[in-house]
Amino acid sequence: MISNYPKSDFGGVTLWFTGLPCSGKTTISQLVFERLQRGRLKVELLDGDVVRQKLTKGLGFSKEDRDENIRRIGYVCHLLSRNGVIAIGAAISPYRAIRDELRQMISCFVEIYVNCPLEVCIQRDCKGMYKRALAGELKNFTGVSDPYEEPLHPEIVLQTHNETPEESAGKVLEYLRVRGWDVAP
After folding, report:
1. Which listed residue (8, 93, 107, 145) is catalytic?
2. 62 given a catalytic annotation
3. How many domains, in total, are found in the chain?
């Protein structure tokens, strides 16, 4: 685990949010994005759902397609962060090996585990995807019929069933602040 990344000379970093569907990745990453943007920092947000409509349209949900989806998001984050941007990737990214591959590619990679029990994620599901997956209508659904491999050594763990989104976002911002990024409190 690398828990003390120094601020790079060029100021770029990738904040990689991973967790089960409905764990809070989109909500928290959006809050972090807005706070960083208000601080006039160069920041971009690549949300998994949005990216699937544009950059990775046509990819399915097989393991191979999921890995390719994450590789593409990760590559864009790599390009952004090496050019001084704070890149935020928010995608389920269920497989540990592909997240580790991104960590090797991206020089300043911060893995943020959005930890939330499956039961709570099911309760939060406003789209009814878990219900459909549990009924067997959705195949390869992470947490139900497809595995989610928890990070072994994330830099940040958010307990979204015990924290408000604002508290979780605050932990991410504090991590950056302690490491030298000019993030307003």
Report:
1. 93
2. no
3. 1
